[in-house]
Write a structure and sequence with these properties.
- By secondary structure, the chain is mainly α.
- The chain has two domains: 8-104, no CATH class; 126-285 and 334-348, no CATH class.
- The chain contains eight helices and four strands.
- It has helices at residues 12-29, 46-58, 65-84, 91-102, 177-224, 239-282, 307-312, 334-352; strands spanning 127-128, 138-139, 158-161, 167-170.
- A two-stranded antiparallel ribbon has the order 1-2.
- Strand 3 (158-161) and strand 4 form a beta hairpin.
- Helix 1 packs antiparallel against helix 2, helix 5 (177-224) packs antiparallel against helix 6 and helix 6 crosses helix 8.
- The model is unreliable at 105-113, 292-327 and 357-362 (pLDDT under 50).
- Pfam families: Complex1_LYR (PF05347).
- Residues 17-79 form the Complex 1 LYR protein domain.
- Residues 282-304 are annotated as: Disordered.
- This is Complex 1 LYR protein domain-containing protein.
Length: 362
């Protein structure tokens, strides 16, 4: 068996030793009398604890046993140093006073305490203006930007999309870390729903059909032997039907996410077009709007939409109905019930046919 590497941050005994050392250092630092030799701000015990905290945070990423051992050794030596500094006539005390006096005064707020002033919350780029149950629609209160708010030549943002189809806006050459996290998280949610649909289709449905077949065999044998038995459950009460409902729910939520992404993409594209128009006007150019949607990606006209396409394009919401997780059972909402009724016939036909002879449901 290969020997695993020692990772201090994942070792419980190492964490206990480091915390014990830090608490001992912080407790010893509070006993050093500094009021008569340094300013009021630097005389606060948090001035020394702030130095300790920075040193511990700097060494928190060390993984080499050599560096970890050296850091712990220095920590215990400094513990002895602070203990000797409690005597005002010692050389250690004079070194601490000299070090603190050479630094700029810091606030007396204790290290690690939360700031009293909360950070101002930034306004979101897009604001949803559609009502509950309506098709998603977004607008922006930050764009277009007025000319007097710019400190340099207007830089037009660029719209980008992920492989899954999630649209987002690039406003700088270096993408912010928060945006990368947001994009990655939304992609992961979308991919997880697709993976669950695939799992139901390829793994769970065959097992459920086998279980339903076993239930029918047992019921048929009990009837043949004239023994007490329960009535054969209908299609709506089988294991297979419950999985079809689960898959329909996931497809419903996936379609909701997709429609929301389309609405966001339209709002972001409007921002780009508006900013480009203003940039051209400020540069003295004539703005010529160009279509950003390829011909093959444009939706067909209303007269060319088939019944199958129109059925698939039905938005998974009803006017005036909320489908969010607001503490109620969302599976009992009128919107979900209407969607189940819409797909009921195709789901029933899929459930009653043998597995080898059925086509994918619409």
């Amino acid at each position: 068996m290969a020997r695993t590497h020692f990772i201090p941050a994942r070792d419980s005994r190492h964490r206990a030793a480091v915390l014990a050392l830090y608490r001992a250092l912080a407790k010893t630092a509070t006993k050093i009398p500094l009021q008569n030799h340094v300013g009021d701000a630097l005389a606060h015990p948090s001035s020394i604890r702030a130095v300790l905290r920075r040193r511990f945070e700097k060494n928190s990423s060390d993984t080499s046993p050599r560096l970890v051992f050296a850091a712990l050794t220095a920590g215990y030596k400094f513990l002895s140093f602070l203990y000797k500094s409690q005597n005002e006539s010692s050389a250690e005390y004079r070194q601490i006073v000299q070090y603190l006096s050479s630094r700029k005064e810091i606030p007396t707020q204790q290290a690690g305490a939360p700031a009293t002033k909360q950070a101002e919350r930034k306004e979101p780029l897009l604001v949803k203006i559609s009502g509950p149950g309506e098709a998603a629609k977004y607008t922006s209160n930050l764009y277009p930007r007025p000319l007097n708010s710019l400190t340099r030549t207007r830089r037009v943002p660029m719209m980008a999309t992920t492989a899954e189809g999630l649209p987002f806006l690039r406003t700088s050459f270096v993408q912010p870390h928060e945006m990368s996290r947001m994009v990655g998280r939304k992609n992961a949610i979308f991919q997880s729903k697709i993976a669950k649909i695939t799992e139901i289709q390829d793994e769970l449905l065959p097992d459920a059909e086998t279980e339903d077949e076993w239930e029918r065999i047992v019921a048929r044998q009990l009837r043949k032997e004239r023994l007490p038995h329960e009535e054969t459950p209908g299609v709506d009460e089988t294991y297979t039907w419950s999985l079809h409902l689960s898959r329909l729910w996931l497809e419903w939520k996936t379609e909701s996410i997709w429609q929301d992404w389309i609405a966001r993409g339209e709002a972001l594209q409007h921002i780009v077009d508006t900013e480009q128009k203003l940039a051209d006007e400020e540069a003295g150019k004539t703005w010529k709007p160009a279509s950003t949607t390829p011909e093959y990606a444009r939706p067909p006209s209303a007269g060319k939409v088939s019944a199958r396409e129109s059925l698939f394009r039905v938005l998974p919401t009803l006017p005036g109905e909320k489908t969010g997780m607001d503490g109620h059972d969302i599976f009992s909402t009128p919107a979900w019930a209407a969607h189940v009724r819409l797909k009921y016939n195709s789901m029933r036909a899929w459930a009653v046919q043998p597995r080898g002879s059925k086509a994918q449901p619409v």
